[in-house]
Write a structure and sequence with these properties.
By secondary structure, this protein is mainly α. Helices cover 90% and strands 0% of the residues.
């Protein structure tokens, strides 16, 4: 579950900037939110790739 914990920490680290942008309308925080979303996208893509590799490995071992 290491990836889940990593995801949880990543999302939790975004909270301050999200609150500043959505609750206090801080424009600079909005820029950081966009940056955070890019980081999340990269992380999600790496997890998707890892899952695909594990599935392929499981399939190959089953032969």
């Amino acid at each position: 579950m290491g990836k889940y914990e990593e995801l949880h920490q990543l999302v939790s680290s975004f909270e301050t900037d999200f609150r500043k942008f959505y609750e206090k309308q801080n424009k600079a925080a909005g820029t950081r939110v966009r940056k955070h979303m890019g980081e999340l996208k990269k992380f999600a893509q790496s997890v998707r790739q890892e899952v695909q590799e594990v599935k392929q490995k499981m399939k190959d071992e089953g032969k």
